[in-house]
Structures are given as C-alpha cells and as structure tokens.
Amino acid sequence: MGRIRVTQIFPWLLPLRRRQRVFCFYEKMRRDGNRYAKAKLDRALPYEVFSSTCPLYNAETGFDMRYQQNKVFNLKLAAARLEGVAIGPGETFSFWQLVRHADSVTPYKSALTELDGRLQTARGGGLCQLSNLLFWLFLHTPLTIVERHGHAKKDFPEPPSDAPLGVDATVYEGWLDLKVRNETAHAYQIALSFSAAEITGSVRCDAAPEVEIRVRNENLSYCQRKDGIWEEVDVVRDCVERGTGKVLVSRVLYRNRCRIGYPLPDGVPVLPDGRRSHA
C-alpha cells in the first residue's frame, strides 16, 4: 500500500496545502538567480524559426463539448500573457511566471484536466494544450530545455498534428512548470494566434537560423504491464544544413514513456511485459 497523504485523511486541508505550495513555488523562483523573460515587443522579430498549427477542439474526450469550449476560453486568457514575449540572451522562460495572473480579471472556466491520475474537470483546465505547443516550438530552437514534464497518461486519442509522439509538456501551478533558458546571443519571441477552430504558434528570432531543426521519433513500442498498456518512444532531433538537407548532427533527446488510457487501433502490436520491440 502506498503512503497515505495527510490531505487524503483531512481533505479540508487541500486548499491550504495548495496555497502553501504555490507560494513556495514562486518564492523559490524569486530567489533562484535566474532572469525570467517578461518583456513584450511591440513588433515581431524578423525571422520565423518554426510555426505549428493544431485543432482547438477534440471530440474524442468522452466529455460534453462545452468543456472543450471552456478550454478554448482558458487558452485565450493564458495566450494573451505569452503573445509577443521575447526571451533575451541569458533569460529564462517560465510558463507560470508569465501566465500566473492571466485570470486575475476574468476567471478561468472549468475544463478537462488530470488530477490524482483521473481525468476530471477543474477551473483553468486545458492549459496543457498551450504548454504542449510551446514545447514543440522550443524543440526547434537552440534554447536549452530546463524543465519539462511529460504526461503520465494519455486519456484519449490526440487530434491531428504535425508533432510526433512524446513531445507534450504538462504544467500544474505549484508543481510542474515548462522552462527554457536562452544561452545564445540572439533573442527569441513567442507568437500565438487563434482562428475559429485552430491555434497557431510560432517562434521568431532576431537573426536568420543557421540550421533547420527537425524532430522525429524512433524505437516506438507498446508494452502490456500490470497497470495497463504503456507507450515508449525516443524523441530525436536532427540539425540539418539549409539548402542541402544534409544532417549535421542527430541525437536522442530523451525516451518518453506514458500509459495509454484508451483502446489502441486494431493491428498495433502490444508486447508482453519484459519484452521490447522497435517500430
């Protein structure tokens, strides 16, 4: 049996515990010596490094679509704090440093989120779609990933996207952040926009990129374990010479692991526990 938390015995302590955790979360950042990006530019930097568009609505969640509408509402509140932000040389980007007070005037709505291993609704749910998109953009830059947390579980199939598997980034205020540090000599800028059905994100720079960065998967496998089916996949980054397409550097960034909470399509091989296969 796992350790029982005090808040499980006395659930009325949960709001107090959360406020304490959030306070310590920001106090630690205040004292950590990093310069956090916060300045917004009144113009777009001249060079687009990478851009990606993804659907806003997912009909495969199993929940009422009003929670998808609420998610979009929340995304727009948070995106307003991120749009146009520049990450200068020596600065660190923190998702929560920028989004912290996004709902101070207009409150977030209830949308889907995962809490204590269960998919449920909560105020401010759905912001992970924004952190997912930002992480996917950052992977196409020389920015250094300082903090990223993959989702422990996929509760429903993902909508169509240009992103490979395993490039998500979950966030939870007080516990999980998305951070990157700019160790280059150039500034990078976040741009976000919405259409009726899609969100588009791009990262821009004050200098033309010297190489093109491509991100892909290797060694995909699904394995049956006691607690369900797990997906494992390598996330690989290639630095490609512009004009020739020659791969200059290729390396595995990390191996992503998550539990699958929905039926896989017919024909997908699932290995018994203890075996490994590469697709």
UniProtKB/TrEMBL annotation:
Classification via InterPro entries: Glycopeptide_resist_protein (IPR052913), Vancomycin_resist_VanW (IPR007391)
One Pfam match: VanW
NCBIfam families the UniProt entry points to: vanW-gen
PANTHER family: EXPORTED PROTEIN (PTHR35788:SF1), EXPORTED PROTEIN-RELATED (PTHR35788)
Protein name: Glycopeptide resistance accessory protein VanW
Originating species: Candidatus Ornithocaccomicrobium faecavium
